[in-house]
Each structure stands twice: as C-alpha cells, then as structure tokens.
Amino acid sequence: MAGKIKITKYNEMLVTPDHLGDGAELSPEVGIHEVCFGSISLVDVSETHAALVCDTCGLRVMIPREVNTYGELKGYFIALAMPSGIWVTTEVEEGGQDGG
Ligand SMILES: [Zn+2]
Q: Model pTM?
C-alpha cells in the first residue's frame, strides 16, 4: 500500500513503497522524496538517532532509532505535527455557528 508521510513542516513528503504496509520494517531505502524524486535512505547517525537522507536534494531529517516500521514512522511524524498534543484534522469545518 503506497502512502505519503509528511516529514517536515515545509510539507516535504516521503512516498513509501507500494508493497510495504504499516507493519513492514523500514528498508534502507525508505522511499522516494515526492517533489525531487530522489531516493530517501535511512542512515544511523548516532546511538539514539537515524537520519532520513535524500540523495538528490540533500534533505536530512532526524528520527529516533526506535522507529522501526513504516507504521511507527507515520505515527512519529503525526505526533510531531500535533500542536500541544491536540490533533485537528483538515476535515473540520471552521466556525461553530452558522448564523442561521
Ligand atoms: Zn529530495
């Protein structure tokens, strides 16, 4: 199942491979950077962290090394995007009153 994961606040998207579901372990080539089509690799950079590195544009995004699967990766970036732990989806309509 192909998916997209927003990996920076600048809306950079990681496109995950078609054949790997949420339960699949991250492969060394994690996926494709949507806009530049570069290959995003997973590189261990310290005892605690790894980096998602794009071979084309130089994108480099840190993730904890305890993130092991695509599902965990998705969850990690969703949690990062939450302001103060409150998740607001884009589906919610603005305004509580419609003046009727
Ligand atoms: Zn890139």
A: 0.78
